[in-house]
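Interim report, section 4.2 (structural modelling).
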Amino acid sequence: MAEVTGRKKKDKRMQLGEAIQEFVKDGCTVTFSGMGGGQCVAHTYEVIRQGIKDLTLIGDSPCESGDMLIGAGAVRRAELAWCSYAVAGLGYNYRRAIEEKIPHPIELEEYSNYSIGMRFLAGSMNLPFMPVRSLLGSDLPKYNKNIKVIDDPYSGEKIALVPAACPDVSIVHVSRADQSGNAQMIGFSSNAENLARAAKHTIVTCEEIVGADEIRSHPNLTIIPEYAVDAVVEVPFASHPWNMPYAYAYDLPFHTVQLAAFKTREGFLDWLDEYCFEAGSWEGYLRKVGYERLHTLQRLESRFTRAPY
Amino acid sequence: MTENGNVAYNLSELLVAASAREIKDGDVVFAGVGIPSLGATVAKLTHAPNMIMAMESGSIGPQPYRLVLGIGDNACVENSICTTSLWRVFSDQQRGFFDVGMIGGAQVDKYGNMNSTVIFGDDGDYYTPSARLPGSGGANDIASSAGRTILALPLQKRRFMERVDYITSPGYIDGKGGRERLSLRGNGPEAIITNKCIFRFDPDTKEAYLYSVHPGVTVDDVVNEVSWDLKVSPDVHETEAPTAEEVRITRILDPHGIYTGNGLNNLSFEGYQAMLEESLIALRMLFG
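Predicted structure of the assembly:
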């Protein structure tokens, strides 16, 4: 029997470091799932730890995966709608990159959240672009020539077009997956299902790897089927300090301390030394945060919501 | 602190109630994080039990018994009617299902065009701004397609401008007919809620006018903080005070003043945990 490779493999389990090293190369185009929760934080730290450079980052509203990668000097070009942290603080690294060119200038192409979502929808459908009723009358098209405002050929009304996003690598974090990459999300998916389908390579990480039988007993929870997946990695608490639906609550006090550190360049670099480089791995980061605290966040969430499986 | 009957309330609590009152029972509401999401949660627990909150992350119709700490916080999936994806929620808005959207920004002009992208320096160049702001996020999409939009920002002369540096979120563009000319489907801004007053929009000219002033604020205080020749409603009045019930629910949800005070400073892990647990217990006792 011929060897089965790539997306046809049945067992795609890897370690996070291996998966990032194999698929995320200097100069490639990358995107991360999550939207104000369920963010790809472990993955961001690993990309920084490996010193990957010259990335083109596409995302709707990335937090750590936008601001920290930009601060670490990993991003050459960003195509996004927003970059900050909401309640806990601002995207200080993003601000420094644009206002002061620190650590270096980045190219920026701006969209809105929905139009970034439509770019991934187009990519996931193998279509060149998608029409959208946003962006009209704003200054976004003025500074982004890849947004085209045309007359709808059917009605004659104005409509905006945005180009398909087809990243080299999509990194998505879900609730659970089997070893072949059938990925289930309980709770909102941000745009994970389209990110995964639009990319040349997709790394699925999950809070928990489960058996194929468990997936088959709840097939309507599957948002990404195995044929769109290259690697499967179990990464518990991968979104800390963010929340993960039905799993653990937001660690707002930790995030507030983190963002206070990011206010200065020195504070950010010290944070990277401590939580990224000295910690050495996501397990090292979690040990620093403390498992007692992490389990408290789990218990806290279980008082409000419970997964139906 | 100001008194309404025997209820004392602070300015933030007034703003929460003012945001809540923009929501009608049965509305589908796109609520951003902060005072808008707190106002929406208060509305749901007071006068608008049939309101449906929609969150950008893909959650629809939550009934949270805790403070919503982000548009993708777990509070957004708590007792929700649907969890789906970002592009699907925004498509529902574009389809016309959402009655009201609430957005913030750094600058606004008299036609309700908002900027949350960049503050220009002296050279007026987008590429070398004096301040880089977070960007559109979903604000442009909400301003384009929500049935009506509620804008929120602090009243300051440098923010209330004749023309904003950059239009992130379209209001009425240049007045009546501006949105229709551009094929924008949403009906545009309904109100601007500030720390000093509330503005509404003239149906004929689409220009913002002063509708009400908060307790202790005069009409002149407002006129002095607006860069254009502000029109004032002939029946300008004091902004309605929050009710005892609105203040009570606001304090159950946000006892440390994360949105209604300086509660983020010195927020301990234990205090945070207790805040969420106590809000759950208090709201279960009140609402089952």
